[in-house]
Amino acid sequence: MRAVSVNHNRRLNNPGPAPSMGPGRVRFVLALLGGLFLVLILRAMYMQVVQQDFLVGQGDARFRRTLTMEANRGVITDRNGEPLAISTPVQSIWASPAGMQPVPPEKLAELARLLELPPSELAGKFADKRREFVYLKRQISPQLADKVAALGIPGVAGQQEFRRYYPAGESFAHIIGFTGVDGKGQEGLELAREKMLAGKNGSRVVLRDRRGHIVEDLAAIERPRNGQTLVLAMDQRIQYIAYRELKNAVELNKAKAGAVVVLDAKSGEVLALANYPSFNPNNREGTTPEMLRNRAVIDLFEPGSTMKPLSIAIALEEGKARVNTVLDTHTYKIGPATIRDVSPQPSLDITGIIKKSSNVGASKLALMVAPQDFWTYYDSLGFGRNPGSGFPGEASGRLRNWKSWRPIEQATMSFGYGVSVSLLQMARAYTIFANDGVLLPLSLYKTNAPMPGKRVLSQKTADEMKGVLVANSEPGGGAVGGRIIGYSIGGKSGTARKLEGHTYVADKHRALFMGFAPGKNPKLIVTVMIDEPSAGKYYGGAVAAPVFSAVAGGALRVLNVQPDEPTNNTLLPESTPVPADF
């Protein structure tokens, strides 16, 4: 028994050689491992080479962001540096639904409350996992944006933008215009000078974590280039006066609308350009297309008797008459048409024709000039042409070719019918009376020196007509209602019937006044148009002339122009307005 135990123990202590793995099995295992490694290598190569763009795109879509660093839009100021359009920093809230986790209901409700949005609308935006970027609310205050950030919702973040603010509000709305929510100009000079004002946005490429926090910059930051400052020719003080007086006149006379233009008589700079009704560019809710119309620049009308000084000047320039020439002003016929005056006079000299606003006298003088020559003067005054202010949509007016004229058409054009103009064009045309016969170019922007003009009349003719227009503001003249305390003036009123279809309507008019001040050495040209006054008065001398007086008088005092007449120089208009504007 003992021998058996010993042998058994020996076998346990010396088990002998282990079973060996055959060479085939070794090769198989090695081949299997090698194949697996090869598959991994090939897969890695496929991912790195073939699928690289896709994978990089997927990673970038989730964590890489190119942020726009918005340029600060340029400031618009008046000629004295007063701000008319400025940009204030605001925040816009956005989200990345594709990488967001479900938002807890209580945080969703609080976010909706802060952004003043329905919770269902927010939930719908978050549920669209196809979208990498979506705005939740544009242009909110930084304080509100801080409250949104405090909620700590992963995937919801803010970015800085700028919102345009217009300190002068309604008074400058039509000339300045406004920008859209994206900061681009939509109307007015904001649109016309978009490239100058906008500047150039910068960019910043960043890596964000899943909560939307910036981890690092992935490229050099491209800094934004801010827009340039735009300095207008306008004076905020004069603009305010023009808008105030225009608004009062439109409301007092229950008119449809109105417009005023004020020019520097020596440089052609537009010191004021007002329209009413207007709108609030800071809050355009409820604004209608009619309220957006810049009537002084884009509306066309027949100027009526305010055209007479220009047509009479042509006859004087052509040597067809002198200032003291007396004309027969009895009613007369041109073919089947009859030319008559509202206040008939048997005869009038040039001053009398302007004072009594004689259609007969003006038309007879016009018909002394050859049609082609008459057309050439009107063309040289800028009628039928773009006035060149650079304002978007400015009207060119209508002046038909002289070859198609009939004598009656040349006659009616002499007193403002058959030709269409804008108020801005008429203001420019009247610069010939303030500048020795030279027509000035217009400028909406402040100039360092007057731009060269174009001679239309001789100095002699221009001076004679200036004297006639000053005389028209004296007793018996149609411009008495435009007189200013302490200053002489020159001007012409007009009342034009409105054309509807092919018929002139008897009860719809435009009341007009064009003039300059001081009359002896003009510094300002002011033109006024009141559309469809309906409170009883509708003559230009009764409705538009007082606006001229208030606007020109206020502007002269703002500019510190010394009075050239005593302070008791005012004259009350006649109790019954002379209907001599037609």
Automatic annotation (TrEMBL):
Cell inner membrane in keyword set: yes
EC id: 3.4.16.4
Major subcellular location class: membrane
Active site positions: S305
All residue ranges annotated as the Penicillin-binding protein transpeptidase domain in the record: 258-551
TM spans (from-to): 28-46
Superkingdom: Bacteria
Gene3D superfamilies attached to this UniProt entry: 3.30.450.330, DD-peptidase/beta-lactamase superfamily, Penicillin-binding protein 2a (Domain 2)
KW Cell inner membrane (keyword) present: yes
Pathway of action: Cell wall biogenesis; peptidoglycan biosynthesis
Its membrane topology: Single-pass membrane protein
A Pfam family: PBP_dimer
Catalysis performed (reactions): Preferential cleavage: (Ac)2-L-Lys-D-Ala-|-D-Ala. Also transpeptidation of peptidyl-alanyl moieties that are N-acyl substituents of D-alanine
Compartments (UniProt record): Cell inner membrane; Membrane
Keywords: Carboxypeptidase, Cell cycle, Cell division, Cell inner membrane, Cell membrane, Cell shape, Cell wall biogenesis/degradation, Hydrolase, Membrane, Peptidoglycan synthesis, Protease, Septation, Transmembrane, Transmembrane helix
Penicillin-binding protein dimerisation domain: residues covered: 70-217
HAMAP family xref list: FtsI_transpept
Task of the protein: Catalyzes cross-linking of the peptidoglycan cell wall at the division septum.
Family: Belongs to the transpeptidase family. FtsI subfamily.
Protein name per Swiss-Prot or TrEMBL: Peptidoglycan D,D-transpeptidase FtsI
Organism whose genome encodes this protein: Crenobacter oryzisoli
